[in-house]
Specification:
about 70 residues; mainly alpha
């Protein structure tokens, strides 16, 4: 019950409008972070694909020739 009372009080006593300023440096940082996360995800998935695909195909291709 205390959690609900706290949530209701927090809702009613917080200001209705908030003013935030994001300078161009912050926007650039957020954009470059999103691009880096997307690129990392692509390379991670690509790495998994190249490790699993030869197992499914029966070990053929470049991966088996390296060994």
């Amino acid at each position: 019950m205390n959690k609900y009372c706290f949530a209701v009080c927090l809702f009613f006593f917080t200001p209705s409008s908030l003013f935030a300023y994001l300078d161009p440096g912050t926007g650039s940082l957020l954009l470059s972070s999103l691009i880096a996360i997307a690129a990392s995800g692509i390379f991670f998935i690509k790495n998994i694909y190249y490790r699993v695909f030869p197992l499914i195909n029966g070990g053929g291709g470049k991966a088996s020739q390296k060994r």
